[in-house]
Structure formats: C-alpha cells, structure tokens
Design goal:
Mean pLDDT: 94
Distance between the termini: 28 Å
Order of helices and strands: HHHHH
C-alpha cells in the first residue's frame, strides 16, 4: 500500500492511478494501518482530502469513470472548510519523490504494459527538474 508523491499523480500509469483510488477507498473504509501510509494519520484530514481531490481530478482528466463516492463522503463528512494546502508537505518531500520515481522507473524498465514511454519520459523530465 502506497500513496504516491502528490506531485507525480499526473504521471502515474493507468494501473497505479486506478489502484490509488482503490487504496484511498480502503483507507476511507477501514483506516488501514500500513508502514507506507501510517504517516497520513499524523496530518489533518484536509491533507488526505486534497490528495484525494488530485487523484479524482487526474482520473476525470483521463476519462476514467468513478462509480462511487460513498466511502469518501462518509470519511470526510465531519470535515469543515478545507485549507488550500499542499498535502503531506513534510512527508512528500524530495526524498520521497525520488523513492516514488525509482519505484515507477522499475515498473517501466520491467515492461509494465500500461506504462507508455511518453508518460515515463514526462515523469523523468519533471523529476529531473525538481531534483537538480
């Protein structure tokens, strides 16, 4: 279980993006505990809400259908005015960006079928610009 670095959501292959929505729904339903996501509970729910908005926005941009919002709506039902923030600011740093990049790089190198060369090159360009 992983929440990808917020800044690379737009560069995720279809499989990882759709899996991200499934993982978010699992968090909404069960408040999963996993070593790779436990940090999210140290932040206000605003952060997870903003992150979720980015995932939903990217899915809609690509024309993917979202069938149900019930778990999300129930999870955030007590959330008031949401702050306009960069989600998980202290965790989604340059080091985490690099970790996520190398994870995706391996998927591309190993031939993940839905990871198109153009999207991978866009990811490389973005990450190289940030990490320089």
């Amino acid at each position: 279980m992983r929440l990808w670095h917020v800044d690379i959501i737009a560069y995720l292959p279809k499989g990882q993006l759709l899996s991200q929505w499934r993982e978010l729904n699992s968090i909404f339903a069960k408040e999963d505990q996993h070593i790779l996501i436990n940090y999210i509970y140290e932040y206000p729910k605003d952060d997870l809400y903003r992150y979720t908005e980015k995932v939903i926005g990217e899915m809609k941009k690509r024309g993917y259908q979202i069938r149900a919002y019930e778990k999300m709506n129930k999870y955030f039902e007590d959330l008031g005015q949401v702050q306009h923030i960069q989600p998980f600011q202290h965790h989604h740093d340059k080091e985490y960006l690099e970790i996520c990049f190398y994870n995706l790089k391996e998927k591309f190198i190993r031939g993940q079928k839905d990871y198109e060369e153009e999207m991978y090159q866009q990811l490389c360009t973005y990450v190289n610009g940030v990490l320089k």
